[in-house]
Amino acid sequence: MEAEQVNSQVRVQLSTPQPDIVLPERSRRILVNTNLRRYGLSSLVNTILGNEKPIPFDFLINGIFLRSSLDDYLTQHAISSETTLKIEYVKAAIPPIHLASFEHDDWVSAVDILSTTSPAQRWSNPGGQMPGHERILSASYDGLLRVWNMSSQITATSPSAGNGGHRSSIKAAKFVSPSQIASSGTDRTVRLWKYQEASDDSPAVMSPHIELYGHKASVDSIAVHQPSSRLLSASADHTVCLWSTRKSDAPTVPDSSLPANSSRGAKRRKPGPAISTSQRGCLSTLKSHTAPVSSVIFAPNDPTVAYSAAWDHGLRTWDLPTSTPIETRSAAHALLSLAAMPHLNLVAAGTSARHITLIDPRASATNIVAMTLRGHTNAVVSLATDPNNTYGLASGSHDGTCRVWDVRSTKTDKEGRVGQSMYSVGRESIGGESRTSGDGVKVFGVLWDPDVGILSAGEDKRVQINRGKGAGPVAQS
Fold first, then answer.
1. Is the pTM of this model over 0.85?
2. Which of 6, 210, 241, 350 qualifies as a cystine partner to 192, CB 3.0-4.6 A?
3. Listing from the earlier edge strand, what are the strands of the sheet with 346-351?
4. Is 180 exposed, middle or buried (0-12, 13-18, 19+ CB in 10 A)?
């Protein structure tokens, strides 16, 4: 019996990167039963910390979440129970709860936010946006942009087509700065808008600033980098275009790129006041893809580098100063969305095959596909990184859900080790229920803000906000 008791225990060394939950030195190396799973280990750590209100913890061994008993882990990895097992513990991810939904008149294709920590705010005036005064930008298939406050009230709406607005559905929208917005759509244009809020209770104003012409088909994705005054766009015409957000730097648009009913002066006369909007062309056109380009992003650590994904299964790395593709990675399926995970040297790509592929875009990479994340039941069309966790992602899919991922959460199936989602977030418009096809509730866009939460845009004509926190710290750069 004594030998059997020894064999059912293993010595563990517990550590955490989160300073507020560090164990006393004397309690970090302890002997535990091998039948313990996550819940048992979590109870143990809470007891040692003396927490009156238990904190749910997750546990990692060799960088992977423990999803079995310690005994099963030791057996699966052929590790002796005589070994001291190093286990890292972190606060567990909290399931995202529904906070609010903003209703529209038509499908909502994209969403962005202006907050204390959003890129547009950080680039222009760090800390300038007070908590509680965030602004949410939505783009809709009705051809309108809307800016909302956190009370679900519209503070500004873009003009109609006759007054300088988009002539058809909008597919993408971003805050460039607190005073500038960019959008693109099926009318083949990218547009820049001036955005100004009044000091009193008057409505904010969104007015046309620059119309950018150069694409020959729908412009489905944009990315902005305000410090360099650069904007990227991805189009169904198989190209990526690089633009300037400053009128003075933008070249004249060629006549061949202008719509047939537009004159060089871009002055449209309609009943009421005349609308005059400057028209400009692109700085360069990036050509290499052989099918519609679905997504484009700037490299997080180098704005002279970009990544693009397309229906030709290709992920291209671009050198923007020379407009040259410097690396190409080929996947097994059409790529529909992108998000960079710089601390892991990976780019996440959503696919038409219902999964997310983690790709190493570096020329030195020997293992191009680092991992596959599985769980969605329809195309993955939008991705956003977790701002509180360098290992985390949120994904939006045509199956009508957003999923929350941590690439350290894995399982083993017939294909080997694959990622599994931490949580699935359904559309509140249908009570959060799951629909395999996603009919009526397809998610088109997703964004993750550290303060507001996960924002998603969908076919149910809503922007939905869910809030939850991920597991693990942000890596220090």
1. yes
2. 210
3. 335-341, 346-351, 356-359, 369-374, 416-420, 410-413
4. buried
